[in-house]
Design goal:
Order of helices and strands: HHEHEHEEHEEEHEE
GO biological process, one term: methylation
Protein name: Class I SAM-dependent methyltransferase
Pfam families: Methyltransf_25
Structural class: alpha/beta
Strand content: 25-35%
InterPro entries: Methyltransf_25, Methyltransf_Superfamily, SAM-dependent_MTases_sf
Bound molecules: S-adenosylmethionine
CATH architecture: 3-Layer(aba) Sandwich
CATH superfamily: Vaccinia Virus protein VP39
CATH class: Alpha Beta
Keywords: Methyltransferase, Transferase
Distance between the termini: 45 Å
Radius of gyration: 16 Å
Strand order of the largest sheet: 3-2-1-4-5-9-8
Length: 212
């Protein structure tokens, strides 16, 4: 069996190809864009404030959120991805960092987007990721998750093209988010398009408004 590269090295190795593949992908994804727009509107309605895309890769979602009027920056564990993002979107801030230990103060953000980035966390580690998202989000801040849905199966590893990833029952991820202090605002399942293998899951959540 081939040993899995750590996530950062695995994404470093494919970053250029991934960036080319992903650059204009959102143009065709009507439902995905609708959800990103809903997230952006909720953050703007709450008074805007800083938003982070965690696991931003080449920055195309970060740039899309900027176009939707958000004050947004990106964080990724892959230095090559961050170099590509900085090069492509010179007006935006991108930082190398790990989303399970963010260099951000408590309550620093009004929004967090994890667009297919928690997918690489081992299932037992996901509660700690959600706790970190909750820590950096101000009370009432919004969290948007996109992931591969498991279509009736329990959480399961699959042969993602870059490195091991997990498909999740949407209810299980919603339960973990709730346990971390998030309330569900809404959810969306999208069937795979041509060329895609798995159903897509999306959860829109809001951090509890009471003091921690
Ligand atoms: C499938 S890509 C998605 C990239 C981007 N969100 C997009 O949609 O184009 C997953 C990204 O998450 C990053 N990532 C995975 N685990 C991470 C972690 N613990 N902290 C920060 N970034 C991480 C990877 O380096 C990779 O760039």
């Amino acid at each position: 069996m081939t040993e899995q590269l750590p996530t950062a090295a695995a994404y470093d190795a494919v970053a250029v190809r991934y960036a080319e593949f992903a650059r204009n992908e959102l143009d065709a994804l009507v439902l995905d864009r609708a959800l990103l727009a809903a997230f952006a509107e909720l953050v703007r309605t709450d008074g805007a404030g800083p938003v982070a895309e965690l696991g931003c890769g080449p920055g195309r979602v970060t740039a899309h959120l900027r176009d939707l009027g958000l004050d947004v920056f990106g964080v990724d564990v892959s230095p090559v991805m961050i170099d590509l993002a900085r090069e492509a979107y010179r007006d935006l801030r991108f930082e190398v960092g790990s989303m399970e230990a963010l260099e951000l103060a408590d309550d620093a953000l009004h929004g967090v987007v994890s667009w297919y980035s928690v997918i690489h966390a081992a299932p037992q580690d996901v509660p700690a990721y959600f706790a970190e998202f909750r820590r950096v989000l101000a009370p009432g801040g919004h969290l948007l998750l996109a992931f591969f849905e498991s279509e009736g199966e329990p959480v399961t590893a699959f042969d993602h093209q870059v490195t091991t990833a997990y498909r999740w029952p949407i209810d299980d991820l919603a339960d973990l988010a709730r346990a971390a202090g998030f309330a569900e605002v809404g959810r969306m399942l999208r069937e795979p398009r041509e060329g895609e293998r798995h159903r897509r899951g999306h959860l829109l959540l809001r951090g509890a408004t009471e003091q921690r």
